[in-house]
Specification:
By secondary structure, the protein is α/β, with parallel strands linked by helices.
Length: 828
């Protein structure tokens, strides 16, 4: 019998928020009896800051952030008796979080896609609810449904950087089919007038065609577009996104390709997601957090939290990674070499390949790898972790996060190709903004971290693909990485030099030997690694308070603009941009963002800002009043420009690899557009101010080099198979006239060039005097000379990359403008 009388006067025990005490009271499993020092430090700091709404925790992979996140939520659940939520980037990670909760003795339940109601234990505040970002953030989320209406007391966001990309997807509308056709009808007149050639490519359904609709055109048609798209509100692709966008189209970006359209907000309106915006406490956790401002701009994390993250002093950093780029050892150790090497390594170790596309993945399948994609992805991860499965060689495409492969599950990781984003917005931003660079850097760091999931873990990481190797070889890319990644990639450069010198006659054998030293746990390698990485003083990346303040004010300005506070939005954002003192590229991007807001109230002022944006960044939209032409060349000499091109690479062999990529880009079996881009990159490497006026401005020649004292006016006719035609000669005449009118100072210093497979001209084709044809042979000769020059300078070292020596070498290799004619032919 229950003695209710004795219970009548009893009061519930008061619970004090103290994570260390909570941990001590848990019925944890044997492996979790004592927190690691870094975990304990994080617990103490979280306890001390328990009254703050937003907190950012930065801790290395394998340091136990999942444990800390679960304990953070458990504490608030105990104190408040209200629901708490743990967010994961992928479904696969939910089970890992649930398993960790079981080991800790903390009650947790999954809330999966398709499930209508959350578990009642979670609603009552008796168990932690674990779900994906998509489950909470979609516009039809069950969290917001009237019969659920779940507002958590606390939320923990795991891998917050990856989560932010997932959240943006939930706010991005992708349109194809009938809605796409009707949208193009509305935009066609204005967009065709803005950039006729790009619009022609889009109308011809060119899969590579891409155009961001200038914001003034988009704003002008936004009401008509709103009416059109609202008619599709119940379509499957609209239903989870359209409710977010329907009342804010004017502050969205629109990117059009030859196949589909993407509409995405400039700033994500996450405040409308009550289950995310209204919790009393939010913890943002990340192992890779180089760009602190991104959480504030994308997710609305308070500037105070991003400016003052929790950084446990005892965090021991990443595990042991031997990062190797074989082509930095010898440019001939290309992708094919790495493929054959991995076939051998997979006989004794698990080898996992992460590719940037499905097409690249198929190449590995041909070498014996098993391709796990979409619904088979989780099964692939399980099989790699199970030695009895027989899977030792696997490939995943576009999976740079959410792949947890500790210990023997992956001893050799291959990253094949630069992991650019798959969205149209990512593709546009990649050519325009350093923030896109930061997103790519983040994906690279995420990818490299897949096989090393604790401080005690180890793996070999191979970087392959000329695009990836040359990318990580750039100084600006290296500087954008976290200190741990910087240190390990600097070691990669040092290793390349050591391997090259260890056996100069046989670099293949040297690579295989040094990989074996890591995998066979050579004591000398471990000592060397510890001295270079682990024993070195660990540095935290300086917190960029200026960028955080700018992100915070930009977000505030968008919120004001959405609520008709346009004057205050203008003032706040303009002041923040001024105080940030951005470089020209970033200043141009931010001025365009400001122009979008200002256009809603003052068209004239907005176009002045857009002019300023374009003057600082050639990749933002061209306002109607601005001359549609590249800027006049600056005062630097061609030798200084070519020297700067070489010096932007941290490793000289990265310049060699880039020269090889340029050669591939000049292959005339590709589309004319790709050849035009190859010509642009060649000119840039040769010290020219190199442009694609027709592509960038909608008028002018295909390519234009201001090289030395001459303007090289270039038309690419690489798709002509038998002869050059009358219309080709007409285009070259028109282009020459355009350059004369646009650049009077160069009127008598013009060199007309045709890039083509053939030199024969039709009888009615009358090319300008002194026209030269750059054939495939000429392209190959130029590219080979650049490659050989890069090889020579790589061997001699940076001291020989100064302008004086560069000028002499240009002459020696036939790469001076005065020698260009020798690589060309006359029309016949």
């Amino acid at each position: 019998m229950i003695d209710f009388g004795s219970l009548a006067g009893a009061k519930p025990e008061a619970v004090t928020y103290d994570l260390e005490k909570f941990f001590g009271a848990l019925d944890v499993k044997g492996t979790h009896t004592e927190p690691r020092p870094a975990q304990r430090e994080a617990m103490r700091e979280l306890t001390a800051r328990k009254d703050q709404k937003d907190l950012v925790l930065k801790v290395s992979t394998g340091a136990g952030k999942t444990t800390v996140g679960l304990l953070y939520l458990y504490g608030f659940m105990r104190v408040s008796k209200e629901p708490v939520v743990f967010l994961c980037p992928t479904v696969q990670l939910i089970e890992q979080v649930l398993e960790e909760a079981r080991r800790l003795g903390i009650e947790a339940r999954p809330y999966l896609g398709g499930e209508t109601y959350p578990p009642q234990e979670c609603v009552r505040g008796e168990a932690i609810l674990v779900c994906t970002y998509e489950k909470l953030f979609n516009a039809k989320s069950t969290f917001a449904r009237g019969d659920v209406n779940l507002i958590p007391h606390a939320v923990a966001l795991d891998d917050a950087h990856a989560g932010a990309e997932n959240v943006r997807k939930q706010f991005t509308l992708s349109i194809d089919g009938e809605a796409y056709d009707k949208l193009l009808e509305i935009l066609a007149p204005a967009c065709r007038n803005y950039h006729v050639t790009k619009w022609m490519d889009i109308e011809s359904e060119d899969p590579h065609a891409l155009l961001e609709v200038p914001h003034w055109i988009w704003s002008h048609h936004s009401k008509e577009i709103q009416q059109l798209l609202h008619g599709y509100a119940n379509d499957s692709k609209f239903i989870f996104v359209w409710p977010y966008l329907k009342d804010m189209l004017q502050l969205c970006r629109c990117i059009i390709s030859g196949r589909n359209v993407e509409i995405t907000p400039e700033i994500l309106p996450t405040d409308v997601v009550r289950a995310f915006a209204q919790p009393a406490h939010r913890l943002f956790m990340s192992a890779t957090l180089a760009d602190d401002s991104m959480l504030t701009r994308e997710l609305g994390v308070s500037a105070q939290a991003t400016s003052n993250p929790i950084l446990p002093p005892s965090d021991r950093g990443l595990g042991e990674r031997m990062i190797l780029a074989p082509s930095l050892v010898d440019p001939d150790l290309d992708r094919g070499f790495v493929m054959d090497l991995c076939v051998d390594l997979a006989k004794h170790h698990n080898v996992v390949v992460l590719t940037s596309s499905g097409a690249l993945a198929e190449d590995w399948v041909a070498k014996g790898a098993t391709y796990f994609v979409d619904e088979t992805f989780a099964d692939g991860v399980r099989k790699l972790k199970n030695p009895a499965s027989g899977v030792r060689f696997a490939v995943f495409a576009q999976r740079f996060d959410g792949v947890d492969l500790p210990d023997d599950a992956c001893r050799v990781l291959v990253m094949d190709g630069t992991p650019s984003g798959s969205s149209l917005t990512d593709q546009i931003d990649a050519s325009m903004t350093s923030s896109a660079r930061d997103r790519t850097v983040f994906r690279i760091e995420q990818g490299m971290g897949r096989p090393v999931r604790s401080h005690a873990d180890f793996a070999v990481v191979l970087l392959v693909g000329q695009d990836l190797t040359s990318y990580v070889g750039r100084k600006d890319v290296l500087n954008a990485m976290t200190p741990d990644s910087q240190n390990q990639l600097n070691l990669c450069v040092e290793l390349a030099d050591l391997v090259r010198r260890s056996n100069p006659g046989n670099p293949e054998a040297s690579i295989r030997q040094v990989i074996d030293q890591c995998l066979q746990r050579d004591s000398g390698w471990k000592t060397f690694y510890n001295q270079r990485i682990r024993d070195a003083a660990r540095k935290s990346r300086p917190i960029d308070l200026i960028s955080i303040a700018l992100a915070d004010q930009e977000r505030r300005a968008h919120s004001l603009a959405l609520n008709n506070g346009l004057v205050d939005a203008h003032t706040i954002f303009q002041k923040a941009i001024h105080e940030a003192k951005l470089n020209d590229e970033d200043l141009g991007i931010h001025l365009q963002r400001l122009s979008r807001i200002v256009y809603l109230s003052d068209h004239s002022e907005a176009m002045k800002m857009q002019q300023g944006a374009r003057e600082r960044n050639n990749m933002v939209a061209i306002p109607p009043a601005l001359p549609r032409k590249p800027s006049v060349p600056g005062p630097k000499t061609l030798a200084e420009k070519m020297s700067a091109w070489f010096m932007k690479f941290a490793n000289p062999n990265a310049a060699v690899i880039e020269a090889s990529r340029i050669k591939e880009g000049l292959d005339m079996r590709q589309s004319a557009k790709k050849v035009e881009e190859g010509i642009r990159r060649l000119g840039e490497a040769l010290g020219a101010d190199s442009y694609r006026p027709e592509e960038e401005f909608g008028e002018g020649p295909d390519n234009l080099w201001f090289w030395g004292n001459t303007a090289f006016v270039i038309e690419a006719k690489s798709e002509n198979q038998e002869s050059l035609h009358k219309k080709d000669s007409g285009q070259l005449h028109d282009s020459l006239q355009w350059v004369r009118e646009s650049y009077p100072a160069y009127a008598d210093r013009l060199s007309p060039i045709i890039v083509a497979k053939v030199t024969k001209a039709d009888g009615d084709a009358h090319f300008p005097d002194n026209t030269r044809v750059l054939t495939q042979t000429g392209c190959d000769t130029l590219a080979l000379a650049l490659y050989q020059l890069a090889q020579k300078l790589a061997k001699e070292g940076p001291v020989f990359m100064g302008p004086d020596n560069i000028l002499a070498e240009m002459m020696a290799f036939g790469l001076h403008p005065d020698q260009f004619a020798r690589h060309t032919s006359a029309t016949t």
